[in-house]
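B., you asked whether I could sanity-check this one before it goes into the benchmark set. Here's the sequence:
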Amino acid sequence: MQANIVCIKWGTKYGSEYVNRLLRGIEKHLQMPFRFLCLTENSEGIDKQVEIHPLPVTPFDEGAFDARKGGETWRKVGLFQPGLAGLEGDTLFLDLDVVLTGPLDDFFTFEPGRFCVIHDWLEKRRAWMPGRDGKVGNTSVFRFHPERHSRVYQHFCDHQAEVLETFRIEQQYVSRTLMDDLAFWPEKWVCSFKRSCRPLFPLNLIREPYQPSEMRVLAFHGYPLPDQAIAGYQGGVFKSTLPATWLSAHWKDAA
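And here's what the prediction gave me:
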């Protein structure tokens, strides 16, 4: 069995070192053979072991989307375009700023063929609210089947105005479109630095961020970014953290 893993890099926020860190983490934590692809408009500095492919085609004005808060994540809809990079079978997508910390093989044997994704931490807590069911994934780490789940792209192409009026962010749309195939990763596998590691105020000011023992992937949504978390983050009394010294072994040393 060969594992397919893909990431997207565009613009200037994340450099080639983010792609190379992912590669080093995959080599360290994945036992099975793998194919690692980066979809990008600029491959300069990316390790030669990484397959380079063009950015996925998207059916919208990318410049306008990128200018919106969180709008750039809609580019992920392009991953579901039929025939993308010749991908076949279950494919794992990783955001560039996730940190790989533990075994990855189970991400390819868990619920084969289904759309597997992080159970979004905030949406899970909001399940009690009227009009919400909590069944929304966070697409920092998800696995999809290019042929089986291509309706995400096709439906968006046919109903773009309706989709954008109904859904604020891409992960809400993708989760709803694939609801019949939706499965959440085991909670301990994928953790959030904000939700799983940062102590609550006022302990965040005096205690180093926690390191979950069974964590395999650590997601960074918003701020801090991994480098900031390692150095210590100043974001107001509630969001600041002391340096996460344990994180450097998984992040800096992987570059």
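One thing to flag: The beta strands are 3-9, 34-40, 51-53, 91-94, 99-100, 115-119, 137-144, 182-184, 190-192, 217-219. Otherwise nothing jumped out at me.
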